[in-house]
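Collaborator request, handled under Task 6.
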Amino acid sequence: MRRDLTAAAILLPFAVAGGGALAADGASAGDAAAGDAVTRGAYIFHAAGCLGCHSNEKAGGAPLAGGRALETPFGTFHTPNITPDPETGIGRWSDADFIRAFREGVRPDGAALFPAFPYASYTRMTDRDLLDLKAYLFNRPAVAAPNKPHDLTPPFSWRFLLPVWQWMYLTPGPVPDDPAQPPAWNRGRYLVDALGHCGECHSPRTLMGGMDADRYLAGNPDGPDGDKVPGITSAESKGIGDWSDGDLTLLLETGLTPEGDVVGGAMGEVVRNSTSKLTAEDRAAIAAYLKTVPAKE
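Structure tokens returned to the collaborator:
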């Protein structure tokens, strides 16, 4: 059975944090939990899908300097500069500022962040992973590139309403491991729900823009840039229920589907910039977790 995965999951880290193409930085598959903070942060950077969204590659923008446009049903977001430039990037952010943005969806000046920056998922990241990620970003070249304003329609452009959205859809803090599940399953859940924030694209949205928890990973007919995003639950007809673990890990590593196709578009970017850079153990953990997600047809 052929599945169209080419439009899946254009991961959107930092989309409104107030901050592509990036050359390989030497982070190897073995760096997942080893090395110094910058080395570990490089692995988190890739696992969290930060690469493509924050560089306007088509326009020749500098790596991580922002400017990529993302069209959504609520308007167009322009991804911000997340280089350590002190004026136009995040160079003046403290450790506490950084953690608060991910954990609570609040920027350093106290204003709420738009949830196109998927902090409702990133809130589940551990403090160590967040600080390692910051160490890596602050080790990248600073680029002076002013951020572009978002082009949103009312009431979605009204930032003062965002605390209401957060009250409805944000549960701050990491999620503890489930002691009834094996370590690989818990690692897979962390990679899918926190670092990879897969539900942000693979779950449908409510009218208020929150993830529909009842349709978790069931697919999104109106994903980023208007693309249809497929379901990745254990359903067979509208999911990955008839895929083997090897099918899943091969796609995550190479982009090759069980039918012999190679994913392109947004999912191709995800494979190239993110999942192919994970350890084999982490790709296997993702597969182990996804195979247990209840089927949603």
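The cover message to the collaborator said: "Confidence is low (pLDDT under 50) at residues 1-30. Strands lie at 69-72, 75-78, 151-152. Please let us know whether this matches your experimental observations."
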